[in-house]
């Protein structure tokens, strides 16, 4: 039987290290978020149901989004051991210029609805981080105001083609004048997808004050306080709109656009052209032959055609078909840094993340976006080290096995 004795204070003192108290409640919330899923949980608590569902949801039965996330979850990462991975460089090249991380911030509409700091906050994080940020046509901060907020950020402008082509030409001109580096044409929205969460929530822009929203306000006073005491929530590229998102898309966007219209776009834009919404090998080849400098394999985050192809599934075939002729980016279903690494290994030059940073924005404004980047960056770096790679270029299809 072992002898027992009371511990001396000198022995206890090294073990009793109280955790530092974080006074700021936003910093305290964010410090506890270790994954993008954690940020999502905070975002769900911090924002009204309709706002969270607009970000979190997808089209119809949301099969496309679930399939994309499921494929990332089921793939197998294959490490190569006994490699010197003390130094890891996550830098890659996008459109001929370095990006400190192998992803960019995807364009998202109505960003000031998620948090009143909106697009300015996202652009400032992109500027500090050294990654590109794509501003949406459906953004709630103007082209020029984003430039004022983050003058040194790598800024791309995402364009939907409107029935009124002159309005699109004006946006392109403003983007060029404001120093935007690239134009991103989204081609998978000839009509709006059926986003049933929004319909069930009665979601409109700006939010309508119904009995339901008034009751919801009681549970989210900070969000409503910020909405009502800051600049009115409107589309920066439109004079005004009051109605559902689907009605807006169907009213404005041109369902007659074809690949031949890329020539029109090239005639008014001299910089790099990215085409977003590619879902087949044949379409990838067509738009690259028509002059695209980069393509985004994307089914719009599952928000357009339900049961659409999973971008990660078609990535290897697209990389084989056009990878020598254009840069290939990928989005949809990315919930962590390991997802980004897997896409790079299978042939993507970089990824776009949307929901991941929006969860951060809803959870804590600009600091929340920065926290999302910290999480993704740490996960990318750690996954590369565990795979036995030091640089993005060392990732190959041998590192991934798809189910």
TrEMBL record:
Record's InterPro entries? Aldolase_TIM, Alpha-hydoxy_acid_DH_FMN, FMN-dep_DH, FMN_HAD, FMN_hydac_DH_AS
List positions binding FMN.
107-109, 136, 158, 186, 276, 298, 354-355
Q: Where is the FMN hydroxy acid dehydrogenase domain?
A: 28-403
Query: Which residues of this protein are catalytic?
Result: 300
For glyoxylate, which residues are the binding ones? 54, 160, 195, 300, 303
The alphabetized UniProt keywords are:
Flavoprotein, FMN, Oxidoreductase
Task: Tell me which family the UniProt entry assigns to this protein.
Answer: Belongs to the FMN-dependent alpha-hydroxy acid dehydrogenase family.
Protein name as annotated: L-lactate dehydrogenase (Cytochrome)
């Amino acid at each position: 039987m072992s002898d027992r004795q009371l511990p001396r204070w000198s022995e206890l003192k090294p073990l009793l290290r109280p955790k530092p108290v974080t006074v700021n409640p936003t910093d305290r919330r964010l410090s506890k978020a270790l994954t993008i899923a954690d940020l999502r949980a905070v975002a769900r608590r911090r924002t009204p149901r309709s706002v969270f569902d607009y970000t979190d949801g997808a089209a119809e039965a949301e099969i496309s989004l679930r399939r994309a996330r499921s494929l990332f979850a089921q793939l197998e990462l294959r490490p190569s051991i006994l490699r010197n991975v003390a130094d890891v460089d996550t830098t890659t090249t996008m459109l001929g210029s370095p990006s400190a991380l192998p992803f960019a911030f995807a364009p998202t509409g109505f960003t000031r609805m998620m948090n009143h700091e909106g697009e300015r906050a996202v652009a400032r994080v992109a500027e500090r981080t050294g990654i590109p940020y794509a501003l949406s046509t459906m953004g709630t901060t103007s082209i020029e105001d984003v430039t004022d907020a983050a003058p040194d950020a790598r800024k791309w402008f995402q364009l939907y083609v409107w029935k009124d082509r002159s309005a699109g030409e004006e946006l392109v001109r403003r983007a060029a004048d404001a120093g935007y580096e690239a134009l991103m044409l989204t081609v998978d929205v000839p009509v709006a997808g059926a986003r049933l969460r929004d319909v069930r929530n009665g979601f409109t822009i700006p939010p309508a004050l119904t009995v339901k929203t008034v009751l919801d306000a009681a549970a989210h006073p900070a969000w409503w306080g910020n909405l009502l005491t800051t600049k009115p929530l409107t589309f920066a590229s439109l004079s005004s709109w009051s109605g559902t998102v689907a009605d807006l898309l169907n009213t404005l966007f041109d369902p007659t656009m074809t690949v031949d219209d890329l020539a029109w776009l090239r005639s008014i834009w001299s910089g790099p052209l990215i085409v977003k919404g590619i879902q087949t090998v044949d379409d990838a080849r067509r738009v690259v032959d028509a002059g695209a400098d980069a393509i985004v394999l994307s089914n719009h985050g599952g928000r357009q055609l339900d049961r659409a192809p999973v971008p990660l599934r078609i990535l290897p075939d697209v990389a084989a078909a056009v990878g020598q002729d254009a840069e290939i980016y990928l989005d949809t279903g990315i919930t962590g840094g390991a997802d980004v690494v897997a896409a790079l290994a299978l042939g993507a030059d970089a990824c776009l993340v949307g929901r991941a940073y929006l969860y951060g924005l809803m959870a804590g404004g600009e600091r929340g976006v920065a926290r999302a980047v910290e999480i993704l960056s740490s996960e990318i770096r750690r996954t590369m080290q565990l795979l036995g790679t030091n640089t993005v270029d060392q990732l190959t299809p041998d590192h991934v096995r798809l189910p």
